[in-house]
């Protein structure tokens, strides 16, 4: 008897582990101009500084506020006939894009929008609602007793449960603190740690293997082992698939991107060498 290694078509391993996805854009501003507000009509939705010239921004009104100091005389029309002793105050509402100011009596100070959640924080609420999960690993050779891959033969990897929560796309909206954000998540890559020191980066869910493929390599997500798993713990390679998601969000007059790459799942496969019995 002799042991030989079988040479087979080599499946192209992954693309290099280079991140070419969009960058994470950070929090965005919790202060933004809503053109539907009374004092912001005709101005495009956009982020604004939360404070300017000693005034604070109100998303609800679409303008900067300050309490007048000193307060106007009780006979001033801004009071609308109210007695200052009954409470409330006169505030300036300044719209910087039109340079238009109005003076309003308000029982309570208008909200300081800079103290509210950022658009990204609201987008993260939407992401939580998506219930994104790690993929179920599809791989040939299959895991489990009685299944063994062969050194030099193509290995196929894929997401066995492709769907909105495992590879996307999926869209959710969330609201908090007067900010509404819509987020859409899509899988960017799946990074496969093959257990032999090799990392394979595949785009998308991969292609499921079926018997008609024979010993052909995977068209989009494959690997070839060059040594057996005999020296590994338990005599198997531990294969881990880590999902890299790109989540784009839009809201509060802004857009942004969240990167998420902490969803992973593992399985184990055995890889041996072909044994050929030579008789004389």
Short overview:
The protein is mainly beta and about 280 residues long. It has one helix at about 120-130; strands at about 1-5, 30-35, 45, 50, 55-60, 65, 90-95, 100-105, 135-140, 150, 155-160, 170-175, 180-195, 200-205, 220-225, 235-250, 255-270, 270, 275. It has 2 domains: about 1-30 and about 115-275, Immunoglobulin-like (Sandwich); about 30-115, no CATH class.
Characterization of this structure:
- It comes from Xylanimonas allomyrinae.
- The chain is mainly beta and about 280 residues long.
- It has two domains: about 1-30 and about 115-275, Immunoglobulin-like (Sandwich); about 30-115, no CATH class.
- Helices cover about 5% and strands about 40% of the residues.
- The protein is built from one helix and 19 strands.
- It has one helix at about 120-130, and strands at about 1-5, 30-35, 45, 50, 55-60, 65, 90-95, 100-105, 135-140, 150, 155-160, 170-175, 180-195, 200-205, 220-225, 235-250, 255-270, 270, 275.
- The strands form six sheets. The protein has a five-stranded antiparallel β-sheet with strand order 4-5-6-7-8, with no helix packed on it. Strands 12, 13, 14, 16 and 17 form a five-stranded antiparallel β-sheet that branches.
- Residues about 1-10 have low confidence and may be disordered.
